[in-house]
Amino acid sequence: MSGFAVKRALLSVADKTGIVEFARQLACLGAEIVSSGGTARAIRAAGVEVTATDDVTGAPEMLGGRVKTLHPQIHGGILADPDDPAHREDLRRFGIEGFQLVAANLYPFAHEPGIERIDIGGVALLRAAAKNNDHVVAVSSPDQYAEVIEALRSGDLDRGRRRRLAAEAFAHTARYDAAIARWFSPPEALPDPLVITLRRRQRTRYGENPHQQGALYAPESEGFWGSAVRCLQGKPMSYNNYADVEAAARLVADLEGVACVIVKHANPCGVGVGQDPVDALARAWEGDPQSAFGGVVAFNCPVGASVAEGLGEVFVEVVAAPRVEKEAIAIFSRKPSLRVLETPPRSPTEWEIRSLGSDFLVQTPDRGVPIPSEWRVVSRVLPDAGQLSDLRLAWTVAAHAKSNAVVICRDGRSVGVGAGDQSRVGAARRALSVAGERARGAAAASDGFFPFTDGLDTLASMGVTAVVSPGGSVRDAEVIAAADQHRMALLFTGRRHFRH
Asked: What is the Cα 353 distance to its own chain's centre?
């Protein structure tokens, strides 16, 4: 038992959720309640006795509320170490009474920025209480009220708990200051410094492998896509599940029409655009049935019973869609381990971040896949409408596959994906090994230029008749000549889409 008691508590909060009941419980435990502004009015209106801060300081609130708790009578009482003789002498000399608890939280600046939303006093209160956590409890969130009251009642508000609450208080002010710093920063894509604070949203069972720890983090100040995902059933999401679902959701959002995407190890292995979700699923699954086993299946449209019945015959880890109909949920429930998610639209992000040990690479996202009207036909053979449609699909999928990537599509579906290969001709061979005879008359996309003619020659040898790539190689003329020799349509986009 710690024996820690609160004789005097200072409450000054922007978020008044639960503050009245918290004050009432503290008063029942014998604490004097000191408060300011709207917090004091709310507590007093509920019939709880409260002392106003201006009665403590002898000075009224001023400057439109900018100054109310910034006073030695307040901060001396928070920062004093009662075990220090010099501190005790200063308290006696200036008539300052100590505080044992401070509850403060800050304006929601990230959501409502502005000069008058920059809290000065609240930040100072929290930092002072957190610094002096040996003698003062820092309470920075309404979520902590019940824990603090229970710990006071049980005598378990020990130093370890106070230190943890202090850490949360400093994290609260750090997130707040980060939001303000970003607001003041010049509008540039990659600011210096880049200030980001993250909250842990969910632990995963482990990281990529069982010997690693894993968790999902997100900026507190921004819309969090992962937290808006509704898990309707199934086992908890793993680290790899999150990575694959995000990759699938990102790709399927870029597809036009009713589409289905199957992802394995963050790479698309099947993509289909069809008349309805069942047709799209069938097209995607036919792309590479072997790789689709145990994958993540994502749709850009609601799914119903027919889709659930179709997926009931195969093994997948996750099914994700904007909406899952009740009839489908009932069918999916026959496989209780299957994760079924309702996924919201993905909002654009400012940055993509990757760790390099203790350093970080930061870039702006690769937004917008150029459309065929912006492409340049460089071959003598012109693509027909069907080839253009398949080229666009292949190009979009290639932009979401790991480099080097070559994607072959035919009749609104992927029939071969070669991704993450060390050479472009190797990626082409991998895609063709999956496509087989389906490559004849198909269209292909390469996420980077062809440095030699061998990649194009390899695709032509299996009957691919149209290819799109960024172009830009010093050997483009040789590549174009090879396309003409193969009587193949070749288009350059002028933009590559590497993904590492």
From this structure: 11
Strands (DSSP E) along 61-214, which ranges?
A: 101-105, 137-139, 198-203
The type of residue at 145 is Y
What distance, in Å, lies between the first and last C-alpha atoms of the chain? 54
| Total number of residues shown for the chain | 500
**Alpha carbons 484 and 44: distance in angstroms, whole number:** 85
d(CA 430, CA 414): 13
Query: How many whole angstroms separate alpha carbon 488 and alpha carbon 382?
Result: 8
Catalytic option among 16, 131, 235, 335: 131
Active-site option among 16, 87, 265, 335: 265
For residue 500, indicate whether it is catalytic.
no
State yes or no: is 7 an active-site residue. no
**pLDDT tens digit string along 181-212?**
888 888 888 888 888 888 888 898 899 999 99
User: Is the preceding peptide bond at 209 cis, omega within 30 degrees of 0?
Assistant: no
Q: Which two tokens stand for residue 79?
A: 């920062």
What is the value of pTM for the model shown?
0.80
3-state SS class at 483: helix
Among candidates 421, 432, 424, 487, which has minimal Cα distance to 453? 424
| Residue 496, φ and ψ in degrees, nearest 5 | -100, 165
Contact 230, 324 (CB under 8 A): no
pLDDT digits (tens, 9 = 90+) for 120-143: 788 889 999 999 998 999 999 999
